[in-house]
## 1
Amino acid sequence: MNKEPADAATVVLLSHRSSGGCEVFLMKRVKSRTYREEIYVFPGGLLEEADLDPELEGCAGEFSGVKAQRLLQEPDISESLALGLFMAAIRETFEEAGVLLARASSGGVVDLVEPAAASRFAGYRREIYQRRLSLRELASTEKLVFAPDLLVPYSHWITPEIVPRRFNARIFLALLPAGQKPEHDNLELTDSCWLTPERAIAAYSARRMFMMPPTIRTIEELNESPDAEELLTTSRSRKIEVILPEAVRMAEGLKVRLPDGREYFPAPKSLEAN
């Protein structure tokens, strides 16, 4: 029951609103043996062996494992793991949402709206999902430089010990690059939407959208920021504390209690043994 949690990376994609404030990109994950309901999530997933490829550092410009370790505020993990978590965040965001945090040879963030590029990169996205293409190979083919500097580490969550599948998840923020449009993969994710934090909170409270505690708590915090740029700026100096919630059995069912005392009902079945 208390097995070591698996390393994972999650990315909160943000966009500006012309009327002020920001929106977050949420996707609906399919039902599974873990989740009875379709839950709304940010792009993200497990760290994979290919994310730790030492040659990836050469595909990340001046961004290094040392810098990744410092930004994550985790001096006890290896530089390789630190950089790998940033690369996992880039890969998962591309796989699940079709957004690629990378720069073209011109120096600008890669444009995926132009029809020929959109078609080509859609193919790469499928191949990466199928594990027939790696990030390193993609960088070599398209002469790309990945842009982990566009990711801002925001929080660090570890799944409660009672949960059968545990994750050691780092949550990053990223502003949606110009020339890109996120879209769910129609495989593990069946729908997607942009919502203001306020509307997402209202949908969660009304039980119209199921979310796990790290997702809804992050959205609640984002709701306190006036716009995306200020949020990114303040988050760069944010002190990251590890959040290890406690699963508490109540008369109305299991709740997740955060270290600050806040309590949330998780998505149905998510704390049950498999």
Note: DSSP finds seven helices and 13 strands in the chain.
## 2
Amino acid sequence: RERAKEWFHLLLPILAFTRQHLDISIHFHKRLFRERGLFRTSSVRKRSVQYDAYHEKYGEELMAYLHRIEKKAFAEGH
């Protein structure tokens, strides 16, 4: 339970960003999954909320943050 709470708090920036609107979540996760090799492109159907330059920049920062915390967790055996 304590480790789950730690992960929840670590992931809060990503959760807050992606939960602001379903379209932002779709754009972010499509990019994340493309980066991880699950999708060939980050293309999405036309959305009501566009993923603008701010979203792109902050989304990239959050993906880098996610990679850092995952790398640290795997190195520690969590």
Note: The radius of gyration is 14 Å.
## 3
Amino acid sequence: MFQNACKSMIHSIFPIIVSSRTNQGKINCSIGAGVMVNKDGWFVTAGHILKGIIELSESVKNYDPNLGKRNRKRITNFSPVFGDVKFNHLSLASVHEELDLGIGKIEGYHAPVKMNPAFFRNDEIEQGELLCRMGYPFVDGISSPTWSKDTGFYFANLFPVPMFVNDALVSRFFKLDSGLWIETSSPGLQGQSGGPLVDEGGKVCGIQVNTCHYPLNFKEKNEFLNVGRAVHVKSILDFLDRNDITYEAGSR
């Protein structure tokens, strides 16, 4: 059902890998997803991903080796990788806190031959409609990069990062003060944050941002329904419009 959507979106979605190192040598790494909006290097992702990148960047800038013991567990090195290792650094970013939506621009971006901007859907999304969620969970080797002064962070045999998809039935719409989330019958997985929900034609209907755990309130304890939450495409396009970012959109 979603075979053609997967084939088309594989050229619009990319992994966002964020690595950091403390002054004690501890390395942390996380992975999410981004969706290319246009050929100028603008992309959309989950807001918490961009917020984390901005905070790590500030932490490195403010690191003072003369602070001694007060430097415990301070971040001394960090690196975001936006898909292809040839991508450059993040130059502009804007985060919508309530929606948990982020938009960014990659400095010096040159679109790879097969990279195409995503196509956003601008007609109604219906309750009960089946969508497809995309991202990068279950990636071997993502938790164990090496680091050196000469090469920075290095991952062995990581690229190309394989995309993982799962079904996402539209269960209901969750209204916020400034927009909408789509709640789906299946959870978003770690590594799918910032990734798209797409319809059968490959049009972006939402951006995955979090998973909510609803208690079932049965006699048995600790039973939950895990639902995915994604920013509704109408809220995404409104945010892009307010930031004067061009995109392509159409109906089913």
Note: DSSP finds three helices and 16 strands in the chain.
